[in-house]
Specification:
Adenylosuccin_syn_Lys_AS; GTP binding; alpha/beta; adenylosuccinate synthase activity; globular; Adenylosuccinate_synthetase
Length: 451
Amino acid sequence: MTSSVDSKHTELNGELSSCPYKKYKMDNNRVTVVLGAQWGDEGKGKVVDLLALNSDVVCRCQGGNNAGHTVVVNGKEFDFHLLPSGIINQKCTSVIGNGVVIHLPGLFEELKKNELKGMEGWKDRLIISDRAHLVFDVHQQVDGLQEAEKGKNSLGTTKKGIGPTYSSKASRNGIRIGDLLGDFSIFEEKFRTLTDNYKRMFPSLEVDVDSELVRYRKYAEQIRPLVRDTVSYLHKEIRNGKKVLVEGANAAMLDIDFGTYPYVTSSNCSIGGVCTGLGLPPSVIGDVLGVVKAYTTRVGDGPFPTELHDETGQLLQSRGHEVGVTTRRVRRCGWLDLVVVRYTALVNGYTSLCLTKLDILDTLKEIKIGVAYKSNGKKIDYFPSSMAELSKVEVEYVTVPGWACSIEDVRKMDKLPEQARNYVKVIEDYLQIPVKYIGVGQGRESIINAD
C-alpha cells in the first residue's frame, strides 16, 4: 500500500523529471567563460572573437566602458568597450547583462564607430538587460572630482564613472535601464534626486538637469527595441541547447574583492561576477578559460612585483604596443608572474589557459618567470592582501633561454621553436593547468590550438 507521503514523493519526482535544472546538471557544459588572469589587457577580445565563431550567444557580465577589447578581423581593427567582442560574428547574439553599468552616450558612439568599420546587423543581434544600471555624465564628473580629492593617493581610475555608478547601485539610489523605459516622470524624479545628492557632496558640480532629461527621453526610444529580461532569455537558450560564451571585462587582479585593493575596479571580474552579472547558477558553467599574457602589464597605480624599469621593460612596451585601449595610457611592463596567475586560478578555477602575445618575446635571449614571493626573507604560500606587504616582496625567478626568432607565422604547436615550447611547458608544470591556445599575432588567425 502506498502512503500519502510516498504519493507526494512520486508526484514531486515527476515534477523534477521535467525541471529544466535537471537538464542543466546532466549537460552542464553549455556556458564557457573567458576571464583575464592578470591585471587586464591580456587579449581577451581576440580569444572571445575566435570562440564566438562556435557559440550562439556571447555575453558581458560586469564592468562598463572602462574596459577595452581590441579585435582584428580581415585586417580591420575594432575597439569594444561595452559591446561583447563576439558581436562581430553575425550568427551570434550579443547580451549585455544586468551586472554591466551602461553609459548610453558611450554605447551609441561605440556602435556608430564600429558600424562605420563594417560591423553589420547589430540591431538584430544585441540584447540589453533591463536590470543594468545607467552611468550618467554626472557619475563621470564625480569620478574625476573624487580622484582629484585624493591627490597623491589617487587610484588612477579611468574616470568613466564606473565607481560612482556601482556606489549608487549599492546605495540603492541607482537608476536602471528599466527605470528609463518605464514612467518617465518617475525616472525624472530619481534623476533629480541623484544629481541633488551629488551637488550637496560637491558644491562646484554643474549639471544641466533639464537638458539631460531631454537627451535621455530620446535615448529611451533608441534603446527600447534592444531591451529585455536577459535572465529568462539566457535560461531559455541554455535549455534549448545553445552554446553561451561569457566575456569577463577587466581581469582578476582588478576584482573588487580579490584584486590588489584599492587599486582595482568596482565590480567582480572573477568567476562570481558571471553568476551575479547574468543570473546564471554555477551548475551551468563548463569550461573556464584564463587568458594570460606571456609577460605582465598593468595600467594605473598599485604594486607590481615583476615590473621592469629597464630596457627590457621598454622593449616589451614598444614591441607589444602596450597602450591602454580605453585611456591611451602607457602600460607598465614586467616579467610573467606565475604567483599572480596561480592565485587567480585558485579563485576562478581555470580549466585551461590561453597564452597571448608570445611573439613579443621573440627577440629576448633570456626570459625570466616569477615563481615565488619572499616576505621579510621568508617564502610565502599566499598572495598578500596588504598592498604595503605586496610592494615589498622579493620575487624568485627561473630563467629560461629565449628562441631569438620570429614565431608570428607559426600555426602549429610542433612548429614552435623548442625554447618557446619549453616556456609554455614551464607555465603548465607550475600551474598544473593545460595551455589550450597560444597567441602569436594580432588577428584571430594568429592563434595556435595547442590541444
